[in-house]
Design goal:
By secondary structure, the chain is mainly α. The longest helix has 24 residues. The protein is elongated, with a radius of gyration of 22 Å. The N and C termini lie far apart (53 Å).
Length: 74
């Protein structure tokens, strides 16, 4: 009985493949934000030395500032 109901429901309503998940295209995202985030992610890979950790912190701060400014303008 349950399989019959599922079969009829699939025929009537159709079956989807599901959603693609979250996209990176948001209302506050622009070229500056994408560049800052990309730099932050790249720096995260190389954060094993003290100098690289400081550069990562600066990149993170820059990325946060770019996102904040973009959200403020929107």
């Amino acid at each position: 009985m349950a399989t019959c109901i599922r079969k009829v429901a699939a025929e009537v309503f159709g079956v989807t493949k599901g959603s693609k998940g979250a996209t990176e295209d948001t209302w506050w995202s622009n070229e500056d934000v994408q560049k800052a985030l990309k730099e932050e992610c790249y720096k995260r890979v190389f954060h094993d030395s003290t100098d690289n950790i400081e550069r990562y912190k600066v990149a993170k701060k820059t990325a946060k500032r770019a996102v904040s400014e973009a959200k403020g303008r929107a």
